[in-house]
Specification:
- The structure is a single chain.
- With about 160 residues, the protein is of the alpha+beta class.
- It has a single domain, classed as Aminopeptidase, CATH 3.40.630.
- The strands form two sheets. The chain has a four-stranded antiparallel sheet, with helices on both faces.
- A hairpin with a 2-residue loop joins strand 2 and strand 3.
- The N and C termini lie far apart (about 35 Å).
- This is N-acetyltransferase.
- One of its GO terms (molecular function) is acyltransferase activity, transferring groups other than amino-acyl groups.
- Keywords: Acyltransferase, Transferase.
- It comes from Methylobacterium nonmethylotrophicum.
C-alpha cells in the first residue's frame, strides 16, 4: 500500500514558477483548436501569476510537491453568457492523478477564495463532469448547445443562507 501523499494548494501568484505548467494544461485541455496558441495561453498565465487583481486567479494542487491539478476563478468564461460572473473555470487534474478527490479539493479552494471576496454565486459550464459537480453541491440551471456539443450550466451559491 502506498503512503498517503501530502497535499498543498497554492496560487500561481504565490508560485509564478507554476504558470508554465498551468499554461500547458489549459492549452491542451481547453484552448487547443480554439484559435489560441500555446504561447498566447502562456503569456496570459504569466500575466495572471504576476497580477494583483483577484480575478483571474489560478489555484494549483501539489502532491508531494509536484503539480497535479488546477482550477481558476475568472470574471468571464463563456462568451454567450457575458451576463454571468464570476466563474469556476479551467478545472483540470493530470491523468495520472485522477480519481483521488483532487478536483473536489481544487473546487473547494476556488469556492473559499470566492467567499473571501464576498462573491455570492459562482458559475461553471461542463460537458462531461456534471455528476462530479452535483455531488459537491453545484446545481444544474440549464443545458445548452455550444460549439456543436451540449453543455450543462451550473451554479453554486456561496452565501451561508443559500447553502
Amino acid at each position: 500500500m502506498r503512503p498517503a501523499m501530502p497535499h498543498a494548494i497554492v496560487t500561481t501568484a504565490e508560485r509564478p514558477d507554476l504558470a508554465p505548467v498551468t499554461a500547458r494544461w489549459r492549452w491542451e485541455a481547453f484552448a487547443r483548436g480554439q484559435g489560441r496558441t500555446l504561447a498566447e495561453v502562456a503569456a496570459a498565465e504569466a500575466a495572471t501569476a504576476a497580477g494583483t487583481d483577484p480575478m483571474p486567479r489560478t489555484w494549483v494542487l501539489l502532491a508531494d510537491g509536484q503539480p497535479v491539478g488546477m482550477a481558476s476563478l475568472a470574471a468571464h468564461d463563456l462568451d454567450p453568457r457575458p451576463d454571468l460572473t464570476p466563474w469556476l473555470a479551467g478545472v483540470f487534474v493530470a491523468p495520472h492523478a485522477r480519481g483521488r478527490g483532487h478536483a473536489a479539493r481544487l473546487v473547494a479552494a476556488v469556492e473559499a477564495g470566492a467567499s473571501d471576496l464576498a462573491i455570492p454565486t459562482l458559475w461553471l459550464y461542463t460537458r462531461s463532469a456534471e455528476g462530479l459537480y452535483a455531488r459537491i453541491g453545484w446545481r444544474t440551471v440549464e443545458t445548452f448547445p455550444y460549439r456543436d456539443r451540449t453543455y450543462a450550466l451550473m451554479r453554486r451559491d456561496l452565501t451561508p443562507a443559500a447553502r
